[in-house]
Design a protein that fits this description.
The complex is a heterodimer of chains A (187) and B (247). Chain A is 28% helix and 33% strand. In chain A, the strands form 3 sheets. Chain A has an 8-stranded mixed beta sheet with strand order 2-1-3-4-14-13-12-9, sandwiched between helices. Chain A is globular, with a radius of gyration of 15 Å. The termini of chain A are close together. In chain B, helix 2 links the parallel strand 4 and strand 5. Chain B has 247 residues and is an alpha/beta fold. The chains are: A alpha/beta (187), B alpha/beta (247). The interface between A and B is large, with 38 and 39 residues.
Chain lengths: 187, 247
């Protein structure tokens, strides 16, 4: 099983790579051909979209062809039509919806929080039910593709072959490793 | 709000975890990767590594330590100490750290906070504030920074900091309890998560700190004993603190 990670500049991509290798996956540079493509998430929306460059089209084509993509944190938000961050940034448009600023609590929202299914039809959401994962975000996805929430915030999004998580499975200890293992087992 | 967090803090120098009183008479107490992994298994919610190599002659860089930690530790960790530029911070995040912490460098040049937040995202930028009597201390708390603690906290937030790590210098190492008054002032002054530091002597102290802040930094109370963390988690649960189901 091989996995490609979309790289777009500064950020903690190494942790994602290490987590995948621990689970026995091979990490390749072939974003178009890999069994699974990961859109990781650290940084800000504008610099990430600029950093993606030609990978943006590769990801859109993957999604159109029904090949699996996992978006993590900002990687989930980048898949949406647009983000409020940095004065408004156009996203990949893979998932209908937009990323909006969090309000009404301490922002950034940092720490461990449980995830609950928002629908009974998502296997991914049901398996994550009740588990606590580590979140670190100032924006959240507003989309009908949300299949699980955490304290009312979108936590897991599914749209076609795209799965997005607002939390960081690569930093969520044993629960995160189980989540990634399930993602790998589905491709 | 996410669950309250317990964050063991490890001082590192020369690639080892060290312990000393006011940076004097440093003693080697273990390997950062082994201790970090043991705390992680013992229910730590995050880890903080504070590089104090600047105070000793060292050939092992903080980036090397961060890279080794990332290979074994699967919970978030912050690296602080000696970060003066965006390049310093970027190298640590690329090695596998999730956040960086700045202190004196931000006091000397507050624009650094904006540069870090813009490039790395606010969630990766912790500003450490050493405070005593409502005033900020700098340079490992040896100098008065000529700033009011609450005003500096507000400025850090405006400049894009993602979290504040607030150490009450007069409580640090005393195990007499956190400075709850100062923490409550900061809770009311900013909308950022606050990590309380300095003074933890027992579970009740930590529970009290978590009543006014989002996380508690644990240093001398743990004595580099991961088993103590497991005990503390059980004691805190018994006091009604909702911790994640980790260990």
């Amino acid at each position: 099983l091989n996995v490609a990670i979309a790289r777009y500049g500064a950020g903690n991509v190494r942790s994602v790579e290490l987590a995948l290798r621990r689970l026995g996956a091979d990490v390749t540079d072939d974003l178009a051909g890999a069994d699974l493509a990961i859109l990781p998430g650290v940084g800000s929306a504008r610099s990430a979209m600029e950093g993606l460059g030609a990978s943006a089209d590769v990801l859109r084509e993957r999604h159109a062809a029904g090949k699996p993509i996992l978006g993590i944190c900002l990687g989930l938000q980048l898949a949406l039509d647009e983000s409020e961050e940095d004065g408004g940034v156009e996203g990949l448009g893979i998932v209908p919806g937009r990323a909006v600023r969090l309000h009404g609590e301490r922002v950034p929202r940092i720490g461990w929080a449980a995830v609950e299914p928002a629908t009974s039809v998502s296997d991914v959401a049901l398996r994550a039910s009740g588990e606590a994962y580590w979140f670190a975000h100032s924006y959240e996805a507003k989309t009908d593709a949300t299949v699980a929430t955490s304290e009312g915030h979108s936590a897991i999004v599914e749209h076609g072959s795209f799965t997005g998580v607002q939390f960081h499975p690569e930093k969520s200890g044993a629960a995160g490793a189980r989540f990634l293992e399930q993602c790998l087992s589905r491709v | 709000m996410p669950l309250p967090r317990l964050i063991p803090c490890l001082d590192v120098a020369g690639g080892r975890v060290v312990k000393g009183v006011k940076f004097q008479g440093l003693r080697d107490v273990g390997d950062p990767v082994e201790l970090g992994a043991a705390y992680s298994d013992g229910g730590a919610d995050e880890l903080v590594f504070l590089d104090i190599s600047a105070t000793v002659d060292s050939k092992v860089s903080a980036v090397d330590v961060a890279a080794r930690v990332a290979e074994q530790v699967t919970i978030p960790f912050t690296f602080g100490g000696g970060i003066r530029t965006l390049q310093d911070a970027t190298a640590l995040l690329e090695a596998g750290a999730d956040k960086i912490s700045v202190n004196s460098a931000a006091l000397a040049r507050p624009e650094l906070i904006e540069e870090l937040a813009r490039a790395l995202g606010s969630q990766a930028v912790v500003v450490a504030i050493d405070t005593e009597g409502g005033r900020v201390r700098s340079h490992a708390a040896t100098r008065d920074a000529a700033r009011d603690t609450v005003e500096w906290a507000r400025e850090c937030e405006q400049r894009g900091a993602g979290e504040l790590l607030v150490t009450s210098i007069d409580r640090d190492g005393t195990q007499d309890g956190y400075d709850l008054e100062q923490l409550a002032l900061l809770r009311d002054a900013v909308g950022l998560p606050v990590i309380a530091s300095g003074g933890a002597g027992n579970a009740q102290h930590i529970a009290d700190a978590l009543g006014v802040s989002q996380a508690a930094l644990l240093a001398s109370i743990l004595h580099e004993q991961p088993a103590r963390l497991i005990e503390l988690r059980a004691e805190l649960r018994a006091l009604g603190v909702p911790l994640r189901d980790a260990a």
